[in-house]
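Form P-L/3: holo structure prediction, ligand magnesium ion.
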Amino acid sequence: MKSLRNRLVLLLIVAIVTVVALATFAASRVLQPPLPEATVEPVARQLHFLANLIESDRQVAIALGVKLQDTPAEGVEITPMSRFLSRALEKTGTARTVVVSQAPGTPMVVASVQLGADEWVVAEISDPRPPPGRWWALGGWIFLIVLGSAAISIFAASKIIKPLQLLEDAIDRIGSDGVLAAIPETGSGEVRATAQALNKLSARLKSAMESRMRLVAAAGHDLRTPMTRMRLRAEFVPDDEEREKWFADLEELDAIADSAIRLVREEVGGDTLEAVHLDPLVHEIVDELLQLGYKVTPPSHVSLPVAVGPFALKRALRNLIINAATHGRGARIELAREGELAVVRIRDEGPGIPEELLEHVFEPFFRVDVARRKTMPGAGLGLAIAKEIIERFGGTITIANSKEPKGLIQTISLPLARDENSR
Ligand SMILES: Nc1ncnc2c1ncn2[C@@H]1O[C@H](COP(=O)(O)OP(=O)(O)OP(=O)(O)O)[C@@H](O)[C@H]1O
Ligand SMILES: [Mg+2]
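OUTPUT (holo model):
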């Protein structure tokens, strides 16, 4: 019931039913039948008149067609009506015994008024009772209103929220590059206007991102020339120690420019998906890093087929494992199959990342402690690149601190591929 559509449907149904109920109540008040006294007392007077006519001039009465019988009219007695009419007779003249009955199978109601021991005058009277089955009719009327208003409400609510639905669908289809997929500009005026606005927004966003990317790549690229000139000049610094410092700084600048260009490449281009097994891929990275002297504990073997770009994924995992091995003093890797997901967990026992900074870790150029730059070289782009790659392959990455033992846990989840025979 939380969705806007359901709320609108409910609101419309309640509004329609309330209006119809109030209108029905008002109509029933206005169209009230006359009071029973107003209909029954004239009947009682006519019956008195008939009885009096017979009692005063029997021959004329019979000639005029007044019906006389030895017994009351046949049929089932309607006791409440007999009682009601008897009271009306008493009120409008003398008290008389009266039986109101209805012959089975006929709609006629007959009043029999006793004149003597074996004499009854019989006359047809109108039936003042409400029609039978009126509660069923009322139930049917309410049911039809609720049914009709539900159908109208569902239709109206779907129409009203169509632009919002479009917005929701568009947000669902935002790619890992943050760009909205094109929305067809069809339908009613409001829907078309929403689609056009979203498409315009998406185009602007895309061009803004592309120009930002071009700027980063150009800056990274253009830095190379002055850096080469500086390196040449540094060769001529006479003091050995000073010269080494210049070279170290230049190397760091080089790494930053390089990573910036690589980030742009990751965001702009993507390699094609291949069915691969995560297990051998992770072991390849571990072997490579062990040879380079990093402290890494490999995972046990678990079969985890995934559909990814293997080179890009290797780059992402390498960044994360190197982070654990350098910032976290040693990486411990685990592989697991969790439901429909292939999970790689990289644990370390380093200082972790302060909780208040955790939300910024994936931002480009983020570094926890800028003062550590000298001891831990890096551009602050490794995590941004890794996240970009992993999300491109439909995966997620989360980073959390662990208390016991203290350190960082990096968790990468990728959707498992169906093909168990992949590489
Ligand atoms: N396992 C970890 N333990 C503690 N801090 C970490 C860990 N991983 C990352 N960090 C912190 O997050 C920052 C960003 O990491 P990121 O990989 O993006 O950049 P980097 O390692 O500094 O440089 P590079 O671009 O070369 O990877 C690091 O500078 C470090 O301060
Ligand atoms: Mg790093």
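COMMENT: Residues 271-415 form a domain with the Heat Shock Protein 90 fold (CATH 3.30.565.10).
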